[in-house]
Write a structure and sequence with these properties.
DNA binding, mainly alpha, transcription regulation, 4 helices, Helix-turn-helix domain-containing protein, 434 Repressor (Amino-terminal Domain), Lambda_DNA-bd_dom_sf, Cro/C1-type_HTH, 62 residues
Length: 62
């Protein structure tokens, strides 16, 4: 669920996974794993970094 939302928000902003990785400080592989559902558990700190990279609030992932 969160992975799909990350992908949706990223695509709405026209960002590639590489660009989001650079903006957030989270590895592209982590973003890929989250978006594809390989990783279902995400640490709050990682989610917060992605939110900052996307310029959204954490609640926007829900």
């Amino acid at each position: 669920m969160i992975g799909k939302k990350i992908k949706q928000l990223r695509e709405e902003q026209g960002l590639s996974q590489d660009e989001l990785a650079e903006k957030s400080g989270v590895s592209r592989m982590t973003i890929t794993y989250l978006e594809t559902g390989v990783t279902k558990d995400v640490k709050l700190g990682t989610l917060n970094k992605i939110a900052v990279g996307l310029n959204v609030a954490l609640k926007d992932f829900m």
